[in-house]
Amino acid sequence: MIRSHAEDLDALEHVSVHPAGSGEVTVGVFSLAATLLEAEERAARLVRRAVDREPALAGWGVLAVGAALVPGPWWGFE
After folding, report:
1. Phi, psi angles (nearest 5°) of residue 69
2. What residues does 30 pair with on adjacent strands?
3. Where do runs of H (alpha helix) occur along the chain?
4. What letter does residue 78 receive in the DSSP assignment?
5. CA angle 51, 56, 59 (to 5 degrees)
6. Which residues touch 29 (CB under 8 Å, ≥6 apart)?
7. For 51, phi and psi rounded to 5 degrees?
């Protein structure tokens, strides 16, 4: 559902959704971004766009957005 609202500028790789017992969900957005700030901004725009436009998400809101740096082989680490 969220992926269907992605635009090219989001550079979206994948989305994961993790429900919590409280009725809230955590949405993980993997985006190819050069900086943490850029990744955070892209994720925020995408998720807010999906919540605003997706009828099935009516009444939902975005409570917080944060980014985590995920190391990988593309950085030359073994």
Report:
1. -80, 125
2. 14
3. 36-53
4. -
5. 60
6. 2, 12, 15, 39, 42, 43, 46, 47
7. -65, -40
Q: CA nearest 15: which of 30, 4, 5, 37?
A: 30
Q: Which amino acid is at 52?
A: D
The DSSP call for residue 59 is T
Strand partners, 31: 12
* Three-point CA angle 65, 57, 37, nearest 5°: 20
SS3 content of the chain, % helix, strand, coil (to 5): 40, 20, 40
pLDDT per residue as tens digits for the range 38-68: 989 999 999 999 999 999 999 999 988 887 7
pLDDT of residue 35: 83
CB 26 within 8 A of CB 43: no
| Helix (H/G/I), strand (E/B), else coil: 7 | coil
Q: Tokens 């994961």 identify what position? A: 16
